[in-house]
Amino acid sequence: MWKHYHIIENTSELGERLAEAKGLTRILSGGTDLMVELRNGKWPELDTILDISRCEGLNRIWEDGDGSVHIGALVTHNDVVSSALLHDKAWPLVQACYRVATPQLRNRGTVIGNLVTASPANDTITPLMALDASLVLVSKSGKRTVKLADFYLGVRKTVLRPDEFVREVFFNALTPDWVGSFRKSALRRAQAIATLNACVVARQEDGKLYDVRVTLGSVAPTIIHATGAEAMLTMRRVDPEVAQAAGLAASEDAKPISDIRASKEYRSYMVAALVHDAVLDLADPDLKNQVPLNPVTLNTHMPVKAAPTADWDGEHIETEINGKHYSVENAQGQNLLQLVREHVGLTGTKNGCEEGECGACTLILDGKAVVSCLIPAGRAHNAVIRTIEGIAEGDQLHPVQQAFIDHGAIQCGYCTPGFVMSAVQMLQEHPHPTREMIKTGISGNLCRCTGYYKIIEAIEDAAEANGKEAA
To answer: For residue 355, is it within any domain?
Structure first.
C-alpha cells in the first residue's frame, strides 16, 4: 500500500519531508479517509506516508488576545465536542463534530483532515464557512493564510500545494450577542455521511438578526452561502413564519444534484426543512443541551508516549499490547488490525468491513477506542494497546464480559469483541452511564443478530456491578 512510513515529531521535520518528497506523499493524522482510499485503490503509486498523529504542538485549541479561536491540525472531532471553549465560542462546530461518524472515528478523525479532504458532504466545513474561518498553510519556505471560502476549487480540490500542510484553522470567537446552529440530514443517527447539512449564524441586536450567514453542504461542488436566505433574515426577528420563509429562500439558492445518497428533489425539500429548523434553534434557550459538556468519547486521556527519533526505519515496530512488549517485523503496508491478528496472534479482534463502519475491530490505542482497520501498523510503534484478550483479570472475566454471558447478549459472536471493548472503555470514562449514553457509546458497533436490547441490558448490568463494587 505504501513504501515508506515516517512518524513526524515536529512541524519543522514535516516541512522538510514535504519539500524533499520524491514520490507521491500523503500526510496522515487520523487516517479515517486515507486508509479507506488506499483500500479502494485510489493511490496505487503512493510512496510515503507522513504520520503526524504525535507531532508536537498540533493538538491545541486556544483563544488568542484578539478574540480569535485556533484549532490545531491534530484536534479531533471528540476534542472539539469535549472543549468548553468551543461550546461557548463556536457552538455550531461542536454540533457538527458531534454528528460525525461514531465515537471511535471521532477519536481519530481531525477537523483539519475533514477540511482538507474537501468533500462537500463533510460536516465541519459548513459551520466553519459560516464562522468565516481561515487556514494557516505552512511549507519549508514560509506560511500563508487563506480564507476557507477560497481554499476550495471543486469536489476534493483545494489550493494546497504538495509541499504545504495545514497547521491550523482560526476564526473570530462567537461573543454572547452571536447565535448559531448546525443541522444535518442523514440516513441514520450515527455512521452516516450527510445527504445535506446547513448552518445559520447571526448577530442579535434588540431581538433582530444582523450579519446573517447561511451555509449549505452537499448541494453543490463546494459549500455555498444561501444569499437569498441571508438577505431575507437580516433585520428580522425569529418566528415560525420567518423560519419558513428563510427555508424556502435557501431552497431556491441551492441547486442540488441527484446521487447515490439522495435525489435533487429530496435535497431541495430538505434544505428548506433544515434551514427552517436551524433558524428556530436561534431562539431556543436550551439549544446547547443537545451536546453534553462531558460527552461519551471512549477516551480516558492517558499520556501518549513520545514519538520515535527521526532515524526510525518505519519497519521494526516496538509496541506494548496488553501489558506485554512485542517486536514486530515486516508489517510495512499493513494496518493495525493485521499487526494484532497476524503478527502477534491475538485473533479476538475481528476483521469486519475494513472501512471503519462496523466496529468489530475496536481496540484501545493510547487510551482511545479506535477502529484498528483504519490505522497503519506503524502507528503501533511506541504505543500502548489493549485488545479483548487483555481485559480479564487472570481467570476472572471482566464485568462486561460476564454481563454479556448472563444476559445472552450474543448470537454469532463476531461483533461481540468490538462491543465489549467499547463498553469497557465507556464504563472507564462514565462508570454510571444513562441508557442514552450507552447507546452513544456503542453507536460505532453494528450487530446483525441480537437487536441490541440484550447488549444494552448487559452494559447496564455491568455498570450496576461497578457501582456495587465501588460501594
So the answer is: yes
Residue-wise pLDDT for 108-132, tens only, equals 999 999 999 999 999 999 999 999 9
More confident residue, 290 or 451: 290
Q: What letter represents residue 13's amino acid?
A: E
Same domain? 85 vs 214: yes
Is the domain of 148 the same as that of 260? yes
Query: Of 240, 261, 290, at which residue does a domain stop?
Result: 290
User: What type of residue sits at position 429?
Assistant: E
Q: Let me know if residue 156 belongs to a domain.
A: yes
Domain limits for position 374: 4-54+300-389
How far is it, in rounded angstroms, from Cα 134 to Cα 109?
20
Residues 28 and 126 in one domain: no
Give the contacts of 234 (CB within 8 A, at least 6 positions apart): 209, 210, 212
**124: alpha, beta or left, given left = phi > 0 and alpha = psi -120 to 50?**
alpha
C-alpha–C-alpha distance, residues 308 and 318, integer Å = 10
How high does pLDDT run on average in the chain? 94
- Write the CA distances from 427 to 5, 254, 362, integer angstroms: 35, 44, 15
**Predicted confidence (pLDDT) at residue 309 exceeds the cutoff of 90:** no
pTM for the model stands at 0.96
**Single-letter code of the amino acid located at 405:** I
Look up residue 115 and give its amino acid.
Answer: L
Give how many domains the chain has, as a whole number. Answer: 3
Residue 469 burial (10 A CB sphere; 0-12, 13-18, 19+):
exposed
Give the span between the Cα atoms of 409 and 461, in whole angstroms.
12
Whether residue 358 is found in the same domain as residue 339: yes
Looking at residue 308, its pLDDT comes to 66
What is the per-residue burial (b if ≥16 Cβ within 10 Å, else e) of 269-285? ebbbbbbbbbbbbbeee
The pair phi, psi for residue 298, each rounded to 5°, is 55, 40
Do residue 23 and residue 139 come from a single domain?
A: no
CA distance 273 to 223: 18
Domain-ending residue, one of 389, 412, 443: 389
Alpha helical stretches, state H, 411-452: 416-429, 435-441
The set of cell numbers assigned to 27 is 500526510
Q: What pLDDT sits at residue 468?
A: 63
Crossing angle of helices 399-407 and 453-470, rounded to 10°? 140
Q: Is the pLDDT of residue 328 over 60?
A: yes
Q: Is residue 257 located within the same domain as residue 375?
A: no
Same domain, 77 and 158: yes
